[in-house]
Amino acid sequence: MFGGLQFGLLLACIVLFVPMVMAGWHLSRNKMLFFSGALFISLAVCVHLTPYFPSVSDFVTSVQSVVIFDNRDDSCINLVNEVVWDMKPMREELLVAEPDAAVAFEKNWGWSKSWKVMACEFQKLGKGDISDLLNGSWVVVAGDSQSRLVVQSLLGLVLNSERMESIKGDLFRRHSDYGIVVEEMGMKLDFVWAPYVANLSNLMMGFKQNRSYPDVLVMGAGLWHMLHFTNASSYGVDLKSLRSSVVSLLPLAPELGTDGPMLINGMLNTEEKREKLSDEMWHAYDKVLRDSRLLHRYGGPCLLLDIQSLSWNCGPRCTVDGMHYDGAVYEAAVQILLNALLIESHQKLIT
Fold first, then answer.
1. Residue 259: which H helix or E strand, with range?
2. What angle do CA 253, 256, 262 make, to 5 degrees?
3. Closest Cα to residue 78, out of 34, 135, 116?
4. pLDDT at residue 49, as a whole number
């Protein structure tokens, strides 16, 4: 291998210097020749070096892709959840499909118009864009029903309506896993039912033991612990254990952690939920999440998919049970996820 590298460098030097000498000799006769010679030299050297320097090869290949290198800094990651809502009463002819007054609003969202957010050039991705971004990827989404709704919204962007309707029965089978391969884009997507943080830690251990790692990992858990244990300190211990498990996997897969939704206590549909999922308990759980240093904004490894902020801004008009929100909230969450992936992979879609 070493002899091959030397031989390649020797050929590169020959290609480099012979045209340069010729270009210098002809420079007085044709000034454009030196520029064309220099361009030829650059391309020739690049072609000769690509077999020996994979990063150069990757760069040459990426020129033909629909994404380009992106130099947005980390501040854009901290701004990607900055979403605003435009709520309007639903048109009368559509009220038949949405008879419940709580959701009978047209819900449009977009990123904030502040100059910092606009400078990040966030964009809503379509099916073609998502196919290019997640082509050949293994995506794992693990968590409770909130995470399952994120899966529904992601698949809704890449599957046609007929196929989407056909999979809903399996996707929403109670307390179960779900998997699908989207052949058109070579994407494998797995949803793992993991309602407790301890389930997520076990999932991380499984990845490590099997030496099989997803390309994208989305995790979210907390509501079940709050409902059935109602102990923020215990939740904090589990989060720190999860952090250790995630750190042991890095940098093998981008991780995105989902924060829980805003809970509207008066709209919760059982007395047990109204008692245990109180505002005070919600704030206690939120605090231990920050203190666990699991999230990127607090020095941790996971990027935040801020369902809490999205649902808070959308408000009571986006939920019928105070816990699960209208599809528009999870659609926004998926677009935030995709833009975060673009930033983390230093890519930007050509528009």
1. strand 255-259
2. 165
3. 116
4. 38
